[in-house]
Design goal:
This protein has six helices and four strands, in the order αααααββαββ. The protein is of the alpha+beta class. The structure holds protoporphyrin IX containing FE.
């Protein structure tokens, strides 16, 4: 997984909790280094271990934690890839273009990057259907990212997000509607 995701997880724990929580998290997970570089790709197993351990330490479920972390990620992801974002896009348009624009660029940047495949279709003027496919089973992170995008575009009170399958599968379907 992209080093940026690890860097942001570190910052998330440091800001939502504190630095000593992060140090305990690393120690409990048994990882030797806590320094992540945004140019590198780290084993997915490290992320699963960190999220699992963080869930245990906070008492939140791993899904809830991924959702919250997904929300937190959005402003940084949007900033990092801002050149690719059309200023006219809002939440639904952003979702429609993530696969072809953002995730495609992420794949080009490093052969080790493997963002999930997102099949996003506009099924009605104010509704998109997201079909997430990834062996990483991080659908809960996807739900959090969608919520983060709605907040980012100041549309959180108009957007409803409804997972139609379990968030834990390799295939997750999420309905997003704008009122
Ligand atoms: C601003 C737009 C976005 C950017 C720049 C972005 C970028 C990234 C990057 C860099 C990764 C790490 C990939 C890797 O290490 O292999 C990633 C993973 C991921 N992205 Fe995105 N993403 C964006 C939007 C979205 C959206 C809208 C969703 C969901 C609807 C989403 C769902 C995910 C998930 C769940 C992962 C975790 C890996 C996995 O499940 O396989 N992303 N994304």
């Amino acid at each position: 997984m992209h080093g940026t995701i690890f860097l942001l997880l570190k910052r998330y724990v440091q800001t939502q909790y504190d630095h000593s929580t992060w140090v305990r998290l690393i120690t409990n997970t048994g990882l030797s280094a806590d320094d992540f570089n945004h140019r590198e790709v780290y084993p997915d197993a490290h992320l699963y271990a960190l999220v699992g351990q963080a869930a245990e330490m906070t008492g939140l479920s791993a899904e809830k934690l991924q959702e919250k972390f997904g929300e937190y990620l959005v402003p940084d992801l949007m900033y990092m890839y801002s050149k690719l974002v059309d200023p006219d896009w809002r939440t639904l348009e952003m979702l429609e273009h993530t696969e072809a624009v953002m995730h495609t660029r992420v794949r080009q940047e490093h052969a080790g990057n493997k963002p999930p495949v997102l099949d996003v279709k506009r099924v009605a003027p104010n509704e998109v259907m997201i079909n997430y496919v990834s062996p990483r089973r991080m659908g809960a992170l996807a739900v959090g990212i969608v919520r983060g995008l709605a907040t980012y575009f100041d549309e959180e009170s108009h957007i409803t997000i409804e997972p139609l399958t379990s968030e834990n599968g390799e295939r997750v379907q999420i309905r997003v509607q704008r009122q």
